[in-house]
Design brief:
Number of strands: 12
Largest sheet: 8 strands, antiparallel
Radius of gyration: 15 Å
Low-confidence stretches: 1-31
Order of helices and strands: EEEEEEEEEEEE
Distance between the termini: 32 Å
Shape: globular
Strand order of the largest sheet: 2-3-6-7-11-10-9-8
Length: 146
């Protein structure tokens, strides 16, 4: 499948949608199970749902995992946790472990928009307690100039 990402905005201060952002190219923090690559993020990540800011972070961990979309794992102190409620959904990744999921507060309608690994498997400890959002369900902007 051809790369269909739009050309990047030439302005250095432009915020780009996450899908159009190239992952950081500096040396990775860790090479882990099944070709999963964890890198320190550069720039600023802002997550919104319906125009409301859910997270604003300048120190995410970027996770590259095969053909999956780039994922940004954000420290919980950079997430407005009062806007999230635990979801009934849980998932298991054979490389990262059991994930808990979160939906929008107050009642969680619309399903999970984020997840976290409270106790990830060995080799993925850097993700402990960090929160990742589904780019398919929220808006994630990345400003690499920060």
């Amino acid at each position: 499948m051809a790369d269909q990402r739009p050309d990047h905005d030439a302005r250095p201060d432009a915020i780009r949608p996450a899908a159009a952002f190239d992952a950081p190219s500096h040396t990775p923090v860790r090479h882990a199970n099944a070709g999963i690559l964890l890198e320190p993020g550069r720039g600023r990540i802002v997550v919104r749902a319906g125009g409301v800011v859910l997270a604003d972070c300048q120190r995410p961990i970027v996770v590259l995992e095969g053909r999956y979309p780039v994922r940004y794992y954000i420290p919980p102190e950079d997430v407005r946790r009062e806007l999230l409620v635990p979801s009934w959904e849980t998932t298991y990744c054979p490389y990262k472990g059991n994930a808990v999921h979160f939906a929008l507060a107050p009642h969680g309608e619309g399903g999970a928009i984020a997840w976290s690994y409270p106790v990830p498997l060995r080799g993925m400890e850097a993700l402990t307690g960090l929160i990742a959002f589904y780019q398919e369900r929220v808006d994630i902007d990345v400003d690499p100039s920060h």
